[in-house]
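fyi for ur records
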Amino acid sequence: MTKWLRRSLLASTVFVGVSASPVYAQVAEPAEVALADDTAQTEPTGEVLVTGSRIARPDLELASPVSVIGQEEIQFRQPGTADDLLRSLPAIRPSIGAGVNNGSDGSSTLNLRGIGEQRTLVLLDGRRIVPFGLDGLTDTNNIPIALLERVEVLTGGASSTYGADAVAGVVNFITRRDFTGVDATATYRVSERGDATRFKADITVGGDLADGRGNIVLSAGYTKADPLFHTAREIAEVPISSTTGLFSGATAAQVTIFASPTNAALGLPASSFGAVVDPVTGRLRAATATDTYNTNNGTYFQTPLDRVNVYAAGHYELSDAAEFYATAMFNRNTVATQLASSATFGNTYQLALNNPYLPGGVRSQLCTARSISAAACATAAAVQGGPGTAGYIEVPVVAQRRFTEYGPRGNTIESQMFQVQGGVRGDIAPGFKYDVSAQYGETTQNQTRENWGSFSKVQQALRAYRATDGSLRCVDTTNNCVPLNLFGPNGSITEAQLGFIDLDAIINRKVKQTVITGSVTGDLFASPLASSDIAFAIGGEYRKVSAASQPDGPSQIQGEVLGTGARTPPDFGQYSVKEVFGEIIVPLIEDKPFFHRLTAEGGIRYSDYTTTGNSTTWKAGGTWEPYAGFKLRGTYQVAVRSPNIQELYQSPVQGLGNLTVDPCQGAAVSGGLAALCVATGAPAGTIGSIPSPTSGQINNTSSGNRDLDVERAKTFTLGGVIAPAQLLPGFAFNIDYFNIKIDQAITQPAQADILNGCYSATLNPTFAFNAFCSLIGRNPLTGSLNGAGETPGVILTYSNLGRIESAGIDFGVSQRIKLEDFGLANAGTLALGFNATWLDRYYFQATPNAINRDCTGYYSAGGCTNPRAKWRWNGRATYGIEGFDLSLLWTHISRVSLEPFLAARLPGDVAQPGGPNPTTILADFRSIPAYDYFDLSFRAAPTENIELTLTVNNLFDKEPPLVGSGVGGTSYNSGNTFPTIYDPIGRSFTIGARIRL
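which gave:
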């Protein structure tokens, strides 16, 4: 069997089973982690630092569990980005990536344990990567996939080693070292339906210098992914109400008028859809669901990506005591999101009664509703002029009209990232090593909003009249104003009208990061009952991060950019931190009865932040191996995380949250609840006719808090490993319990907590105006939670009042079988592996006044958001024979349900409202059954230098679950499903070729 095949089978086993194996500070035993570069020898040379420790000792094992994805697994999956590779791992909760359209900033991020992306640290070769935005997160689109040797995922005890933002753990992408030769790959993916295409090509070139004293490698790649539209899949052809199961679009292309002041005042029956112009009569009639607009037009299940990446690394031995090393990377990513056509949305406009496009019947109804006499109304209709002209009258209206003539709203995010690093490492004395380095990186992000439109220009174009000569004129003719026909049918808005109201907004962001670090590692002495020396590492680090957001002028004006709902303020923040750290691993007992190996380890990091002052993070752990291959391990960690720039400095901005039913909507609101609706901003005259949330969404206003302090986390893991090489060759099993508790957590209150805390008769039986009510601001015209600028909706401000708790168990098992051992000559090898995570609990309490929400196995809007399954697992079976592999991957997601409306979250708690009232959610949308996906891979090596791979994803073409458009977080509930978790693409085929010279 070729070395290529042996490595292939080994890595397949490693992917699902390495967490069952002891983790070493060096890639010393091939049964533990994936091997190094395929073009090198079977055993890699040189020490490789394993994630979770700065101590490079091949004989010392770490207590923290580490899962490893080998290079061969990467090739089986043929991912376009790192997000594609890691999204389905059991320990990771899917976060922002290609499946997020509404709410994406163009990045792809990771969320270990589901406790927040800001608590997962992403590294490249053990080094930080310059963040993407003000939130300090790493964009995994920047990871050089082609150069990866392996990915290590550590899920405990990492904060003292790398920094307190590694509360949940670390994902460390490790590149190949000492690469020589040429490695060229190309892959192409297409769905069975002929869409969702993706092309990726990479070339890596490397060689040795000065007879092996150094090495340099250069890798360049290009990735292009085409969009997948919502309307390309039956499940998302139209938005579906989670309440009724019927079509649930937004306001019609034909204008819909709300709150003028009410339907009743217009002489019409009540309607949550407002009043629409009847093209036959020229009068307003009560709007129905059939008048709404398909907001899934032009939106994406898969956002397009255009990516260029270059990565270079080199090292050179200056002397026996000094080796210089350096890396440089550059990435240019263009990601586009796209929303339904722009509109006037929920803005309040002053509508002139002499508007030349205003139908006479509508004018008459508006005059009656506003108690304007027929004579004054007729006089106002004939006025040739604007405000200040005799007889001129204008009335406030929410006149919603989709600009379908515009096409979709585009949101293109082009980011460029570069980072350089240089350092010197070597031996101080026998057994003592040093490493000193510095790095600097920048990320620039240019976000362009195309076809969104200008509020002020719409208002200017509505103040228009018909002149004596019959021409249509704007009252204010500046900027070549063109009167806007807001009242005509779809297609009636001309290019000239669109050209005048057009506005393409631009937002620029820049993040800078400087890191200077140095460390010394070495050996001390052996304990009396051990032969291995105690190992230590000490060092210091200085880190400075600054981030700024600079929008253009229109973006800074409240509500000026249509569809944004609010201004985008300029933001700037920075911090620096000085840290010292230390680690120690102590072999206590070795090679004694019942103590094959007993090891203790500890770590500490002292930090001094310019924002939050001093803090200390530490860990303690150990391993006990009574017999070779049977081990118990555990770690305990105390982490203190300082807030990032966004949490500290973000100015108030408006976004969207999902809500199916507004507590104040409809005719049944009365008594104390009605009084609360008025107290939170609804005009008294709107009670009984407040509309339902537009498109199932309401406004949320979020902001930073400069008074934030640190959050404090306590985590521990406890587990065991069985890998008896002599008794069961090729077998490994692990089980690890994890427990994470975060107090004084930096959180935002849940939308559901605020709404329930104010309006629920259970939580607020007297309907008193309380602290929750003070965080709600309604539309001053319609009383709804929608509307631009003047409607903050639900106010979500960061605080240190949160509490997060999560616990569960990780399992891993693997078995590699040589079929020739069973008398089957030349029959090949079978590798089996399984990795699973069982979530015992996930509790989240945003503030002491909020409920302690249990999201284990639930989803909901504004509370638990996207599904958090109790069980997730991967299993892989690979059969290999000379020059050929056949591999099947099984991914499982257990059943999840809608968060209960009334539940006792913890033993002894009183049942309180948490999720949406189940009577408002269609029964079919209150649960999602267990999902199983299967991916099949074929790989062949027709020659020594050529490999061909075919991967079939979603082998059985399983469709995603239908839950409607309103039962999860706005970013994650898209296309009536959850595309970040459940595959919307369907069966797809990826073919790849690799040439190695």
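The longest helix spans residues 3-17. thats all i got for now
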